[in-house]
Amino acid sequence: MSQPILQVEHLKKYFPAGGRKVLRAVDDVSFSVQEGEILGIVGESGCGKTTCGRTAIGLYSKTDGVSLYRGEDIHRMRGAKRRAFCCQVQTVFQDPYASLDPKNKVIDLIAEGMDIHHLYASQAERREKVQALMEQVGLNPSGIDRYPYEFSGGMRQRIGIARALAVEPRLLLCDEPISALDVSIQAQVVNLMKDIQQETGTAYLFIAHDLSMVKYISDRIGVLHLGHLLETGTTEEIFEHPIHPYTRSLL
């Protein structure tokens, strides 16, 4: 196989828990994500999924282990290399109410990454790119000058997805992107993300506790429990022939 876009080896993330106690949120986890692949990480709430994803892409500092993006150590990137990495790896956060600044208009929220990385030549081009992104995620471009509070939860999550796509990333960390949404909206957002993945070839690290959604969207699945990755396999292998007793009980 070709070099993975993301390679995580023996990753650990510990937090102090008072006195000499240590919370081992992520404990010796290894996995890889291939170019254009969707890897689902599934497990109960509190098992370390979000911490694992955020540490893997460098949002959190690591305690130990290695996290490589196309062979480069993420936690040692500096300067221009770090800026290029931030363009190529983006996050869709769990809570669309908390992840969007209520003081900014939609155009400024979506264009934030483009502003930082200077990805347009004029204000007119900036506006056109934002309108195109809004159409791509199923939003009416006429709402470009509105504020987040004027949108529903599902629409806000679409704004968050558009913001992540604005810098044309090659890897998306999707941190429980549907768990804060109504059940009726969840399927729409997952279908949108699947369509975008097929259209752009972007790789996903898709974190969720909803087994049916992970099964629907993922090429491979990893099962996390109390900071440990118990098993990984194709979607069919995990659902039809689970090996670990915890995986069987989760199913």
Please specify the SSE layout and strand pairing.
Layout: E1 6-16, E2 22-33, E3 38-42, H1 49-56, E4 64-69, E5 72-73, H2 79-88, E6 89-92, H3 106-110, H4 112-117, H5 123-136, H6 153-165, E7 171-175, H7 183-200, E8 203-208, H8 211-217, E9 220-225, E10 228-234, H9 235-240, H10 245-250
Provide the structure class. alpha/beta
N-to-C terminal Cα separation, in Å?
30 Å
Low-confidence stretches: none
Mean pLDDT: 94
The main pleated sheet reads as: 6 strands, mixed
Tell me, briefly, the overall form: globular
**Helix and strand sequence:** EEEHEEHEHHHHEHEHEEHH
Q: How much helix is in the residues? A: 25-40%
**Approximately what portion of the residues adopt beta-strand conformation?**
25-35%
Cα Rg? 18 Å
Number of strands: 10
Order of strands across the biggest sheet?
6-7-8-3-9-10
User: Helical region count?
Assistant: 10
Task: Give the key terms.
251 residues; alpha/beta; four-stranded antiparallel beta sheet; globular; 37% helix; 10 helices
Question: How would you portray this structure in words?
Answer:
- The chain has helices at 49-56, 79-88, 106-110, 112-117, 123-136, 153-165, 183-200, 211-217, 235-240, 245-250, and strands at residues 6-16, 22-33, 38-42, 64-69, 72-73, 89-92, 171-175, 203-208, 220-225, 228-234.
- It is of the alpha/beta class and 251 residues long.
- A 6-stranded mixed sheet has the order 6-7-8-3-9-10, sandwiched between helices.
- Strand 1 and strand 2 form a beta hairpin.
- Helix 6 packs parallel to helix 7.
- The chain is globular.
